[in-house]
Structures are given as C-alpha cells and as structure tokens.
Amino acid sequence: MNDMTTMTKPRVETTLKDWETDQEVRWCPGCGDYAILKAVQRTLPMLGADPKNTVFVSGIGCSSRFPYYVESYGFHTIHGRAPAVATGVKLANPDLDVWIITGDGDGLSIGGNHTMHILRRNLDCQILLFNNEIYGLTKGQYSPTSREGTRTPSSPTGSIDHPAKPAAFALGSGARFIGRAFDIAKQLPDVLKAAYAHKGAAFVEIFQNCIVYNKDVFADFTEKKNADDGQLWVEHGKPMLFAKGTKGIALDRIALKLKVVDVADGDWQAADVIVHDVTNRSVAHMLVEMPFGAFPMALGVLYDDPTPSFEEAVVEQNARLAAGKTPDLQKLVSQGQTWTVTKDGPSL
Length: 348
Description:
Blueprint: H1 32-47, E1 54-58, E2 73-76, H2 82-92, E3 97-103, H3 104-110, H4 112-121, E4 125-131, H5 166-172, E5 177-182, H6 188-197, E6 201-207, H7 219-222, H8 224-230, E7 231-234, E8 241-242, E9 247-252, E10 257-262, H9 281-289, E11 297-304, H10 310-322, H11 329-334, E12 340-342, E13 345-347
Parallel strand pairs: 1-2, 1-3, 3-4, 4-6, 5-6, 7-11
Antiparallel strand pairs: 5-11, 8-9, 9-10, 12-13
C-alpha cells in the first residue's frame, strides 16, 4: 500500500477486545458485513487508534448498524445524511477520528449529494461504502449500483437503469483517495490503514456479499478459483500484474486507454506494463472504469494524493477572524435593530 503519507496521530495500545461492544451482532447469517466489521476491529489496534477519540457515523441500511458494534462513540443517523453529521462532528472537534459507514443505497441515492459534498470539501474522515448492489434492509429492491437486468421486487422484469460506479463517482466528486477491496479480502486491513493515514476524505468501496438478496454477485472475482484472473491488486511503485504475473495492464498510447497484455517469462517491462503511481489521477480514472470481464477488477489503493483538508481551512479562517477580538455575546445579539416588547406591543 502507499507509504507516501505517514500517520502522525498519537498511538494508543488496544486489542481487538477493546473495540468490541456487548451488543449482539445481528446481520443475516453469512452476511459479508460480519467480515468487514471484524476487519475494522482488527485494524483499529494496528492504527494505534483511541476508542475515546473515535467516532463512527452511519446512515440507514444494513451496514448502518455498524456503530452499535464498535466500542467507540457513534451516531446512527438518518437516510443519506451521515456525511452532514460527520462534518459537524469533525468541525466541532477536529482531533477526532471520524469514520462514515454507508451503503450503495444510503450513500448514492438519497445521500448522493451529501457524499459528493463531503468529498469535494475534503473533510478528514474515512468513508467506507459497502456495495452489495441491492437494497438489503428493505427486502431486496434494486439499488443505484444494481446491474442492468437485475430482477428484484421493484424491477420484476429487470432493471433498465444504468448502474452508478461508486469509485468513479467519488473521483468525479473530487476525492483525493480511492480504495477498493471486498469483504473477505485479506488485503482489506491494508486498504483501511492507507485510508486512515491519508489526510482528507478517504473513500473506500467494499464489495459486500448479500447472501439473501444478491448472493455471490461478485463471485466472478472474489471466489478463490477466480482470484488469479479476476483480481488486480495494485501497489504504489509496482507493475500492474495479475494471473500470477502472466498478464498485465498497459496503456494503448494511440487510443489512450488501458489494455491487457501478456507477460512472457516475467519480463513485464518488455510488455510495457504500467507501474502504479497512486498520485496519477488519470490512470485512477481508467482503473475504476475498466469493464470487468474484459479486465480484472482493480483493487487496493487506486489513488492517494492528499491536499489540505476542509476542517483545517475552517479552523484557520476562524482563528484569523477572531484574532484581536474579545467575545461579547450580548453585543452580538443586540447589534442592529432591537425591539422592546410592552403591553401595547413591540416597538423599535
């Protein structure tokens, strides 16, 4: 994963148990959310995160039960509005570690505008979007990321919507960090650590298996038998290789688009395979737009190029405006027109 940024937050020694609550974890048996929860709880001690300095904010949906199961502060908010609440939390106390838990329905339908604005503002937080391409909590309707032809109670003859691509949406909204993984991936903690190290809004799309309403929709690349050909795990400074190093991703310099190339005898340079640069936004756009099937699924840290965060600018602006001034609430509320209320009514 990207080592271009370093974590400067004070470290606290914790264990997995320190991040587990006494609440019964209640998702459908076999749900991918269990694996994501455990990955996050195992990663937090590696980060040196402090439970007393950590806040998980969620909206509505299966994924949004998350704050109940992490021993930290948490808000289970309303549909699509987790970014708004998280922004208030971070501005009130910029020292807090803020994590947003959302889903493809919560974060990209009613909450799409909120997701866009927190990304373009670049609030320092980690946004974990669980993508199962379905509405699970409300019993299996098609979601903004459901594929064309998906049959559900709300699309019985097959969805005709063109699906949204979460990572592409995030890049288009101005995100400076894009990560991708799936629920049972052993590399998921590495992606989470890189997101935490990033200063600014870190967007992580996590493909999640909904065992009831959209079972195995990602099996073409998540199942072990399909992993070699179906997964492209990118790493900064290393060539984009997959299929046990026999194939790679190169740039068609005439058409200016990516292509799959064969790699003979491990000579990836002769095949002109791209070396991954997490600061290259143009290549990141091409990676998230690669059509699966013709290409493997791009996973890992796809883009990581920090810029000053929103709350830093707000704190600096407030300090500048307050410099040399004495707070006077009474003067503030009394300035301009005031009214005196008497028995005869108000008067200026």
